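[09:14] KT: can someone run the structure on this one? pasting the chain below
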Amino acid sequence: MPSHNRAASTTRQGLAGSSIWAFTLPVPSLVICELLGVPYADHTFFQQNTTIMASVDNTRDETMAALGELSRYLGGLVTRKRLRPKDDPLGSLITDTDLTDEELTNRAADARRRHETTATCWR
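[09:31] RB: done, structure tokens below
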């Protein structure tokens, strides 16, 4: 089963009600995790921080703290993948381009921002 189908199926099973918000945030987050090659064990961390960043109910300090956590995480992810590239889009960028770690981290952050846009468009 493709990862986005698996993510959608898992999310549907975990929904308490029929909230669009409850579905539109987790699914894009899980798909972005798959595209970036985020280890499954880190999906919860990724999703929690992107949820904070997408919410209008948090303070600026909470949002900036989540952004900092994700930025540090993505920088570390790029560093780890540079040492051991995987067969995923981020790994391909590492092996097939001359992008610096900073540029790669920015590309990963762009993917995360796209997730935020997708997740909040239904809110």
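[09:33] KT: thanks! Residues 7-18 have pLDDT under 50 and may be disordered.
[09:34] RB: yep, looked fine to me
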